[in-house]
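for the writeup, i need someone to sanity check this before i put it in the appendix. the sequnce is what the collaborator sent (i think, or maybe the updated version? ugh). structure was predicted straight from it, no edits. if anything looks off just tell me and ill rerun, i have time this weekend
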Amino acid sequence: MDRTRRWPKALLHGWLSGTLTFLVLLIVVGALPTGAWAAGLALYAGLVLPPAVVSYRVRGRPAGPRELPRPQRSTPPMTAEVTAQAERAITRYGELLHAHPYSPGEAAGSDELTDYSAALDAYEQAKRAAPGQVPAILAEGRAALDRLAAVPRATSGLTWSKGEGTMKLAVPRPAPGVPAVLVFETDVAQRFSVHTRSGPRGRRELLLDGVLGPTSAQVGVAPQDAESLFVEVSACGPWRLALRPISEARRLADGGLLRGHGAETVLKRGASRTVEFEHLGDAPFAVRQLTRSFRPAGLLAEGRGSARLTVSVPGRGVLRVDTTGEWRLVDPGA
């Protein structure tokens, strides 16, 4: 007990004890003579102070040892729900791993191969680990996949159709009757537009329109039964284009992240109803929904400059990002 709190109680005990004793002495001995009041006060103080000191010492004495309750260990029970959550997380990570666009090539660096190996190992480790360890293991695997998503995809293996200025050309399709991905690139900033036709005299449809810098646009093309895609390019300087199979379009799975620069069509394979879209730079941007045949189905978001938005999407489907700047898509499904 604090000394400042012990003294008042100790003095109170001494005063009560001394006063009672002094009153008893007065009654027994009788009234003191006039000249003996000083001695009486000294006697009174002697009767008050000793009990106060004793009370102070007794109350300040620590209590004897007593057994304290042992702390209980708080170990979370491994319930069936925890195990089920871990299994669902592993399943979602496996889907994300399967849908990830990265594939190690001959020119892959050591950092890329290390991240790729870490992403694969995380899936195997999570399947063997205890349920409580699964979130941390999968977090490391997702971080490795995020770094791989930022690696530019190689386009050196494509068969390019090159031109300059305004031209019309027929580009062979990877497979007739299915969608494809058109890759359009230029090494200089210039105004351009790309139209497609269903045939030499077919209906003309706008595919790309804007200002393209030293980067690429990779957008989906609707399926046609023809073996070639008829394209009209309007530009001022040199350019090149190629067609990719639809299987090479990037996929956004549950908990996935994609980074890009320029216009791109993305296959959304997660079941979540929202995606997080972040845009960098001063350029205008738009996020659109496409049908499964890559036809326009609605505008989801648009604006200009830096922005971070939560966009409502219809679950699985096709999204298209239109911009000349950098952007990021995140599926919060995990």
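The chain has four domains: 3-59, 121-149, 161-246, 251-330. Residues 89 and 334 are 7 Å apart (CA to CA).
thx in advance!!
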